[in-house]
Amino acid sequence: MAQRHADIAAGADMADPLADWGLPGWLYTDPDYFAVEMERVIRPSWQIVCHVGDIPHPGDWRSLDYLGESVIVVRGDDGILRAFANVCRHRAMRLVEGQAGCAKKLVCPYHAWTYELDGRLSGVPMRRDYPALRLEENGLAPIDIDVWRGFVFVRLTDNGGPSVAAMMAPYDDQVAPYRFEEMQRLGDVRHRPRAVNWKNVGDNYSDNLHIPVAHDGLSRIFGKSYAIEAMPYVDKMSGELVDRPSDNFWERFYQTHLPPAPHLPAANQRLWLYFKLWPNMAFDIYADQIDFMQWLPTGPTSCVLREMAFALPDTYTVAGKQRAMKLVRYANWRINRVVNAEDTWLIERVQQGMASRSYTAGPIGASEVCLRSFASKIRAIIPEARLDHPPPAGWSRTARRD
């Protein structure tokens, strides 16, 4: 059944009788539907945890909490990255707290059960008190892990879906010049709660038609160059910086002072690229840095935005050049801070509208290829998503078992 879900998601756009329509409003508020969606869409999907550069040494670990689960990614003594449930096999105590750390062994703070960095259970106080216990059968529960261009991903359920590399394959040659593998994190991970359904964030991210209406700043710096396209598991958006200086100070500063990036081809020097990976992750790629964002569901009408910024180690040895790059990155942040505030205003009001009894499903334009692709995948994985109104109460109990 899991493999069937993966297969139909990949070919969702090919035969969708509702391809001209968006998802109905109840999918953005209904608790029963949310439970099914978490089981079929989010649990089997890859979620980013960190960059390999965040856990360079044996014992270094990073964690990710979502859907009531806590996952640890740890580098073993053999240099291999592994992912485990952050749950002791004895009494379900969490082994580690926080987002990052380093340990020679993973020792449970409740009863001191001890696990090696490869997940093996190696120490149990009062071992003779557990005559039925087999150490080799009670190591930490493994979690699927994948590494793509230096970024580390995990998924809670293996549904036979593609690797991250396979998802991004259509655009791998476009990403390659940015040297993701060499990136370093610019600051701490940021968490921003939002009182909206997770799909609202992704819908807005891939929505091309709202750019000239709601984002004056992007319209000034892109002109009419903004473009989108959709592949089976990834959306691409892009815009090129225009030469005409903006009337806005920070936009004009960025346009004027962006230094050449020696590792990038000429066509990418003034290009802003956006890639949204199925179903809830995105990379914003600039010549000066890249930003990663994922929107993790926390309830039917809430989610949290998890964000990180990365850049190559500065290749400029002249102090003035280093300062220029830092100022340009600050200008980038000032520009996108405004964009983020505009998007937050939009999605909060869309979420309110989705709760209205007057709204069922709205039409999707032929040019809105990313929205069409996403909606078709959801309908293919969860057939009830085709209904204008929720099924009778209790339907989700059966649906989650399918």
Architecture overview:
This protein starts with a helix and ends with a helix. The radius of gyration is 23 Å and the shape is globular. The protein is built from 11 helices and 18 strands. Strands 11, 12, 13, 14, 15, 16, 17 and 18 form an 8-stranded antiparallel β-sheet that branches. Helix 1 packs antiparallel against helix 10. It is an alpha+beta fold. Mean pLDDT is 93; it is low at 1-5.
Which stretches are low in confidence, meaning pLDDT under 50 for 5 or more residues running? 1-5
Structural class: alpha+beta
Report strand %: 15-25%
Largest sheet: 8 strands, antiparallel
SSE map:
Blueprint: H1 2-10, H2 31-42, E1 47-51, E2 60-66, E3 69-75, E4 81-85, E5 100-102, E6 106-107, E7 114-115, E8 121-123, E9 142-148, E10 151-155, H3 164-168, H4 172-175, E11 184-185, E12 190-194, H5 198-205, H6 211-214, H7 216-222, E13 227-230, E14 234-240, H8 249-257, E15 271-277, E16 281-285, E17 290-299, E18 302-311, H9 319-354, H10 369-381, H11 395-399
Antiparallel strand pairs: 1-10, 2-3, 2-5, 3-4, 4-9, 6-7, 7-8, 9-10, 11-18, 12-18, 13-14, 14-15, 15-16, 16-17, 17-18
Provide keyphrases for this structure.
single chain; 402 residues; alpha+beta; 8-stranded antiparallel beta sheet; 7-stranded antiparallel beta sheet; 11 helices; 28% helix; 24% strand
Brief characterization of the structure:
The chain is an alpha+beta fold and 402 residues long. The chain has helices at residues 2-10, 31-42, 164-168, 172-175, 198-205, 211-214, 216-222, 249-257, 319-354, 369-381, 395-399, and strands spanning 47-51, 60-66, 69-75, 81-85, 100-102, 106-107, 114-115, 121-123, 142-148, 151-155, 184-185, 190-194, 227-230, 234-240, 271-277, 281-285, 290-299, 302-311. The chain has 11 helices and 18 strands.
